[in-house]
Amino acid sequence: MDILCFMFISFKFLLFVEFSYAADTINSLQSLNDTSGATLISNDGTFELGFFSPGNNQNRYLGIWYKNIPVKTVVWVANRLNPINDSSGLLMINSSGNPVLMSQNTSVVWSANFTKQVSSSAVILQLLDTGNLILRDEQDGNSETNYLWQSFDYPSDTMLPGMKLGWDLRTGFERRLTSWKSPDDPSPGDFTWELEPQQNPELIMWKGSTKFFRSGPWNGLRFSGAPELRPNPVFVFSFVSNEDELYYTYNVTDNSVISRIVMNQTEYQRDRFTWSPSSQSWTVYAVVPRDRCDNYGLCGSYGVCILSESPICQCLKGFTPKSPGNVDWSQGCVRNKPLNLSTIDGFIKFQGLKLPDANHSRVNGSMNLKECGLKCSQNSSCMAYANSNVEGGGSGCTMWFGDLIDIREMTASGQDLYIRMSASELGSSDGKKKMTLVIVFTTIGVVAGLLVIILGYVIHKRRQKKTSEKTENNRETNNRNEDQQEDLELPLFELATIANATNSFSMNNKLGEGGFGPVYQGKLEDGQEIAVKRLSVISGQGLNEFKNEVILIAKLQHRNLVKLLGCCIQGEEKLLIYEFMPNKSLDNFIFDQKEGKQLDWSKRFHIICGIARGLLYLHQDSRLRIIHRDLKASNVLLDHEMNPKISDFGLARTFGGDQTEGNTKRVVGTYGYMAPEYASDGLFSVKSDVFSFGILMLEIISGIRNRGFYHPDESLNLIGYAWKLWKEGKPLELIDPVLGESCHLSEVIRCIHVSLLCVQQYPEDRPNMSSAVLMLGSDGELTEPKQPGFLMDRKLHETGTSSGKPESSSTNEITISLLEAR
């Protein structure tokens, strides 16, 4: 006991000496006492090791957290299973060189438990800048890289950049994440995330012993069911599989970005967060599962989950539901015709899928796709095959044995899968095609004969001709409406249902009116509030825009885009049904002195960042590159928590592949928000939306409309006024007076800076939205903006052309929308 007391005194003396140095040198120790309140800090001051009590829990734990983040965020806990019920905890290195955590009664509550024998005087604990707590032997020449022990090998609920999730195949050692039981209890919950060490590895989430979500196998670029792992300017992802190791890891491209992945026991989801220094809060970057289709095995074997369908579970082609009445999709689907289980069976290609559960699959990286199909056809147990690597056009072979389960449609990042089918099913398919051709040609012949008879009859019966033409026109209209309904892939509402919900489109329910018709508030029979956009019957230009908006937004899923619930096409009536936004549109607040007081600076900055994330999704992360072309304050709606949602996709255009810009002779949009190259020459690109975003930022900051504002002395519009103040070093004069003292001045100046970068004259000088999002969320140095495109000539609004542009520009047909309340 005397020896132990002496060790304790010695360690306290050593601790005092260590902490008498500057913070950047306090990076290693041999003991740590809870009573002293001392902590261990990483070299760069990012992380801190010490004792803490989570939430309302009075027990003490040894853990690591971010030092300079005001919201205490713990990333690792040592004694998750054995809390200390007082402040007597002592972390020390014992005589065997092993770190141990002891309580008051000298019992060991946690130990690193490494087996190598070393001298206790030669080892130290050190907290690295990555958040990794390491034990190293100072007498080992390779101690900077070869650690005796490290916390990264024993993660809690958090994965930090540089951590490995997976296996050391030489020792059979596994690294996996396990959630906290609750926010007040860091003991292990039942929600875990691990890498399945099978021949075709994939990441699996478990709720207890039940498989909850799987990522799909690695395909050379990403896990096939994880579209969020696409190339981006923030994160890089790696998957390593060799004889020694099998793991997944990620890193940040910019060390100033603080990021973490957390297993959320409360919501049963895996959250990827980034820290926003400007808003001093954690921002959700990605969530998994993303939607219902991510729930493991939701549609059973040979069922495919399609989020846009109703029900979302469907059978693959050649299969029918096993459950009578299609009520229990967990039973999956069965083949229409049984397999022959021989080489005469064939394969049908299915495109854009998350590959099935890889638990019963095999991989051969040396085969090409043709060899893979031949090998699979020769094995009666092989049910499907695909490329194992899609990089560079595709290579390698994956074959599945047994029923195929957990398949979902993934249009943007899905893969091709070849599924074994009965030869008779394939033959039947060919026979149906031939029969279809016979029916088509027979029908054409019959119709042609009828037309000759009708033509002769019409010559003598002109009045009947008019009646016949009217009937035919009505038939064509109905057919066209039916075709549109089939293409829109959305829930269809009856006109009577919407009329009842809006009190027969009462004026009392009218929220506002846009370029293509009025918008009404309504309530469905189940109590759900909706907003109904009604295409004006007299709007000659609105039909195409209506169809365009439905097709574009139907499959878009993002928290900063307004959600389209369905549509109604009945006769001349064409309606869009959206989720209801109780706070209407942004222009109702920022351009009104009274209402503007409800939006302090933190809320306005939150709205700016939300709009930026929504645009980034449209430009980069959605299945097609989408140019909105009409971003303005009235097209940003606010929900009950003032979260912004971009709306009105009637003028949007899509790009595919590597296309980055387009040209049109019909310039449409709103004066005051259009980029100069678009307004004058019809050239539009993602940089056109960036220009509009820059103007919108200036309006949010100043509370002034760009259109209609002119400086009394110099005839400058809002952009010109902002540029003048910037050049004179007086940008703060732009701030909306109603913001008062709520502003973070450095944050406001940064937003003004970013907005001026976005409204520069030439598209190539403007940042893309991924860069704009990063600039808004970091404190890095920004480039000096060049002169913006002013667009302040009043003649553009009056004549549709700019007096300073070449005459050829006037060939564009310009459609200008006025700014009106929604």
Describe this structure in words.
The longest helix has 38 residues, at 423-460. The model is unreliable at 1-27, 428-435, 467-488 and 791-822 (pLDDT under 50). The protein contains 15 helices and 47 strands. The N and C termini lie far apart (78 Å). The chain folds into five domains: 1-154, Bulb-type lectin domain (Agglutinin, subunit A); 164-290, no CATH class; 296-421, no CATH class; 495-579, Phosphorylase Kinase, domain 1; 587-817, Transferase(Phosphotransferase), domain 1. The chain is α+β, with helices and mostly antiparallel strands and 822 residues long. Helix content is 24%, strand content 28%.
Q: What is the mean predicted local confidence, pLDDT?
A: 81
Helical residue percent band: 10-25%
What oligomerization state is this entry in? Answer: single chain
Report the CATH architecture of the largest domain: Orthogonal Bundle
Compact description:
This protein has 822 residues and is of the alpha+beta class.
SSE layout and pairings?
Elements: H1 2-18, E1 28-29, E2 31-33, E3 40-41, E4 47-52, E5 61-66, E6 74-77, E7 90-93, E8 99-102, E9 108-111, E10 123-127, E11 133-137, E12 149-150, E13 158-159, E14 165-168, E15 173-175, E16 177-182, E17 185-196, E18 202-207, E19 210-214, E20 235-241, E21 245-252, E22 259-264, E23 269-276, E24 281-288, E25 303-305, E26 313-315, E27 319-321, E28 333-335, E29 346-354, E30 361-364, H2 369-377, E31 382-386, E32 397-401, E33 407-409, E34 415-421, H3 423-460, H4 462-488, H5 495-501, E35 510-514, E36 517-523, E37 529-534, H6 542-553, E38 564-570, E39 573-579, H7 587-590, H8 593-596, H9 601-621, E40 625-627, E41 636-638, E42 644-646, E43 653-655, E44 661-663, E45 666-670, H10 676-681, E46 683-685, H11 686-702, H12 718-727, H13 745-758, H14 769-777, H15 794-799, E47 813-817
Parallel strand pairs: 25-33, 45-47
Antiparallel strand pairs: 1-10, 2-7, 3-4, 4-5, 5-6, 7-8, 8-9, 10-11, 11-12, 13-22, 14-15, 14-21, 16-17, 17-18, 18-19, 20-21, 22-23, 23-24, 25-26, 27-28, 29-33, 29-34, 30-32, 31-32, 31-34, 35-36, 36-37, 37-39, 38-39, 40-43, 41-42, 44-46
Helix pairs in contact: 9-11, 9-14, 11-13
